[in-house]
Structures are given as C-alpha cells and as structure tokens.
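tool_call predict_complex ligand=S-adenosyl-L-homocysteine
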Amino acid sequence: MTNMNFDIITLYPKAFELINNLGVITRALEKNLINVNLFDLRKYGKGPYRQVDDKPYGGGSGMVLKPEPIYKAHDEINKLPKSKTLLMTPQGKVLKQRDLLRWTSLDQLIIICGQYEGFDERVRYLADEEISMGDYVLSGGEIPAISIINGLTRLLPGTLGDPGSLKDESHNSSLLEYPHYTRPLIFKEMKVPDILVSGNHEEIKFWRKQKMLERTLDRRNDLISNADYKKVPKSKRINNYSNEMMKSLKDNEYEFYPNW
Ligand code: SAH
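tool_result ok
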C-alpha cells in the first residue's frame, strides 16, 4: 500500500532523478511506500512555445512564472481525500521537523516549485501552506521539494531499518542528539569516552541525556525549553549575573537569551 503520494509541479522534472539514488528514500519508492508524480510545467505552457513565464508588470528585472500553467497543472492532479498543497517560497514559514511529522497523516502532498523571480502572486491562492527551507534564496523550488520528500519519507512506517533511531534524533524534541562514536576505539589519538564502553546502560543513558542538554545549550539555546533548562546542572546554567550582562549587551544589538 502506498503511504504517501507526492505530486510535484516543476519546470525541471529531471532534478527529481536524484530521488532514485538516495538510499532509504529510493527503497521506499521501490517498495511503493511512496509514489512521486511529476507534472512538467512546460507541458501546460501557452502557445506553440509553451510559454510559462513573462515580464513583471510594473517593470523590474527577471521573469515571473505565469499563473495559468500552474493552475492548469494543479487542476489536472487527482486530489486524494487528505491532501495539501505546498508552495515553495523563501517568504514562507521555515520548515520544521514537526511540519514533516504533521504531514505524515496525509495521503497526498502537492508541491509547487517556483523558478526565476518566482511566481505570479495569484498562485498563492492554490497553497494551503507556504514553506521556506531557510533564510536564503535558491534558484528554484526543486531542492526544497526533494528535501520535503526525503524528510517526510524517512518518517513513514516501513522506511527506516530501525525506527528507534527517530526517537532521540535532533529536532524530534527540543534537544539536539548526543554525540556518536563507532570503531576504532582510538583514532588519531582521540579516544571514545570511557562511559560508552563501560557496558553500564543506565549510566550511558544518563550521559547521553546530559550531552543532549549541553550540546543544545552550546549550539542552539533558542531550541531549549524552560523545563529542559531546569534539568541542566546549576554549574552549567547561565546565571543571573550573565543574564544581566546579556541584557545590557542587548542594547548594543547583541541577542538576549530567550525567556529563561
Ligand atoms: N524573488 C523571490 C525569490 C525567487 S527564487 C523572492 O524574493 O521572494 C525562485 C524560486 O525558488 C522561488 O519561487 C521558490 O520556489 C524557490 N526558492 C528559493 N529559495 C527558497 C527557499 N529558501 N525555500 C523554498 N523555496 C525557495
């Protein structure tokens, strides 16, 4: 049974050949856990030249995708009962792991990929959600769409060899994952922490939890919740003194720690 149908509207369908070489994702395709249909925007273009883009009204640089071909392609897609249309745009909501999880309950994701300067504003009315990959600009929506196919597919049952690996991974909770080591025990004079070879599973669990907190504090303190913070040993917490200091730095445009 197919768990998820991806219907992609794109000017560059060949870009999606990448998913035929992506390990876990490719196996999900072969096992029919996912189905990817590509709708080549060019086919829906106007006139003998299959025109899909035009100059912007009001002048300015670059070309804009016309609305009609995108609406036509979208109309042609067979809509399943639980379906959402996503529009790829750097002006959208920045994609989070929780969005991918949320979408796993759907039957279908229709993804519209922009190109050039983007698309005619009226295309926005087709979208249930506008999604950005991050605060940077790419030349097209294809790589963002492939990222969504990839990230969502690995959450589907039957896709990963060991679904347990999803539990602790970064962004599944507000904490980043703990550090991993594999053989050899010593590499270029760097030794695997003793605790990991101690065989004491309780202690290992505790060590990993500590590392998750430390890492998140170090690297992404914007992710950590108040509750998680209280679990951090006092010596590692940012104390009132440094909070006060940060406050005064804030006036100099430094960032202040979030709501602690
Ligand atoms: N002029 C537009 C950017 C166009 S980039 C603007 O300033 O908003 C061309 C296309 O690439 C976009 O329509 C979108 O589909 C895709 N794209 C570029 N950056 C993206 C990002 N960060 N997230 C998702 N899609 C992006």
